[in-house]
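REQUEST ID: PR-0412
SUBMITTED BY: lab tech R.K.
PRIORITY: routine
TASK: structure prediction, single protein chain
INPUT:
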Amino acid sequence: MAVITPPEKKSAPPSERRAVRRSRHPLVLNLIALIIGLAVWALASLGIDNLPGPRPVVKEAGEMIADGTLLDDSLASLRRVLLGFALGTALAIPVGFLMGWYPTARGLIEPFIQFFRTIPPLALIPMAIVLMGIGETPKIAVIFLAAFMSCVVAAFQGVTDVDRTLINAARVLGASDRTIFVKVVVPASTPFILVGMRIGLGAAWATVVAAELIAAQEGLGYRMQYASTYYEIPKVFVGLITIGVLGLVMDRLLLLAERRLTGWQERR
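STATUS: complete
OUTPUT:
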């Protein structure tokens, strides 16, 4: 009588096992870093006057969540950041492509880009308020400028750094300029654009907080300014942590999009 032996289980290839270990390794390090950071913060609060520890900040956050203040302020700041960031990025990408692909456009536009890039968007907030009032328009305008300047330079650099061998090879094969631009230049520039978007996102958050410190009735920056006036330091920390968490989540989403859109790139 023949004995039927169960099929042997095939183990995953070594490359897949290494990939799984690499994916878990950063998460463990992130958790360790978070625990160390909280411990250092708690110890520092014992030796530094007026520095609240994690416990009073968590208590204050719970109260702000319960009365809806934290949610309303977060949504107000998030709305301004997303709108200004989206508008700035949407304009920066075609302008960057235009500058990188056409030398004439580069000569006409680049001096203005380089001039305004040296001016911090925060320095334009007073002028924006004078010209546009104290409503939402000046806040979104300065956020738009911060995101635009970061992304337009990245898009321009992405086009100019495309490997000329790829372009020449496409032309030898009979591809038109339009086909080369769509099939070669745009994919090769995508990593640069996404990096510029991540930088622009950080600039947008910094700008919205500064704008809300000057003229706003709601938002995380406004709440921090209001709390500092009455020396409510835990509430200031709640605002800082909320901004950091929101910015980190948005940055991780952009990083995920970068991995999906640039999966053809070789990674270490």
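NOTES: The chain is about 80% helix and 0% strand.
REVIEWED BY: pending
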